[in-house]
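During the reporting period the student researcher (J.K.) took over the structure-prediction task from the postdoctoral fellow and processed the backlog of single-chain submissions. One of the processed entries is reproduced below for the supervisory committee.
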Amino acid sequence: GDPTGTGAGGKSIWNKNFEDEVKLGVSFNKAGLVAMANAGPNTNGSQFFITTKMTPWLNMKHTIFGEVIEGYENIKKLENLKTDFRDKPEIEQKIIRAYTKAEDNL
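J.K. obtained the following structure tokens:
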């Protein structure tokens, strides 16, 4: 989830880092959650990640903002790609299309 393709991340829509938006009761309790990557408290930029298993050690450290509701099999394919010494896929991968679905109970 790095729009620059470098692994270093890009800028947020505010052109600067932004605060964590963590909340008690929202946890990394399953695969398929979409969250902000960061380098410590309040350093969110543009990088994101998708969990492929429960990751409770990330609770209250990363902002969860979405969930994969269709196409999770593609996430598993990405997870199993051959990577180079920097852990970057040997063949470039791109998100071509993404959709959002709003829920009334948020």
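The committee noted the following: The longest strand covers residues 33-36.
J.K. will present the remaining backlog at the next meeting.
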